[in-house]
Amino acid sequence: MADSAVTSEDGQDGEETRRDFLLISTVSVGAVGAALAAWPFIDLMNPSKDVLALASTELDLSGIEVGQAITAIWRGKPIFIRRRTASEVDAAKNVKLAELKDPQSDADRVQKPEWLVLIGICTHLGCIPVGNKSGQTKGEFGGWFCPCHGSHYDTSGRIRKGPAPRNFEIPPYKFLSDTTLFIG
């Protein structure tokens, strides 16, 4: 009598082919299930909407008078924006670079001479210097003063006296118009 197992033309049992299909199907469904289960954990690593919203800031500068300064917040850091007077611009331009602890010309620090945009954090220990509001001490060089350890910055945000090793940092910014500033 003939054998009861069904054999295909290439000599393999029909059951082995079915078993291979079931194995491949099970592994495929398991891989898709593992990917779907892992997705929420992977998605948690993306920045949240509130963090993305802080990635850039757009400011209207039309209300800032010559000689006035404001403080904005960008990525949780204070940003000092000063509309400099002609004498402040001249004072910043006329400094000899050899006198500076961190030599940098005023032209390298500003896009428009009238506007100075800085991250307002002292480069010594991360304090917030004073001098951005009217009536506050501006230091010996007319810029900012960090009362914690006595660092003095000039009208270009460059360190002139005290323990701070570097000038104020400059955030990435551009002017969208004469009165609109985009930071980020």
Task: Describe what this molecule looks like in 3D.
- With 184 residues, this protein is an alpha+beta fold.
- It folds into two domains: 8-46; 51-183, Rieske Iron-sulfur Protein, CATH 2.102.10.
- The chain is 26% helix and 22% strand.
- It contains four helices and nine strands; from the N terminus they run ααβββααββββββ.
- It has helices at residues 14-43, 49-53, 86-93, 106-109; strands spanning 57-60, 69-74, 77-83, 115-119, 142-146, 151-154, 159-161, 173-175, 180-183.
- The strands form three sheets. It has a three-stranded antiparallel beta sheet with strand order 1-9-8, with no helix packed on it. Strands 2-3-4 form a three-stranded antiparallel beta sheet, with no helix packed on it.
- It is elongated and about 90 Å long.
- Residues 1-6 have low confidence and may be disordered.
CATH topology of the largest domain: Rieske Iron-sulfur Protein
**Level-1 CATH class name of the largest domain:** Mainly Beta
Work out the strand percent. 15-25%
* Principal-axis shape: elongated
Counted up, domains total: 2
Topology readout:
Elements: H1 14-43, H2 49-53, E1 57-60, E2 69-74, E3 77-83, H3 86-93, H4 106-109, E4 115-119, E5 142-146, E6 151-154, E7 159-161, E8 173-175, E9 180-183
Antiparallel strand pairs: 1-9, 2-3, 3-4, 5-6, 6-7, 8-9
In short:
Helix content is 26%, strand content 22%. The chain has 184 residues and is α+β, with helices and mostly antiparallel strands.
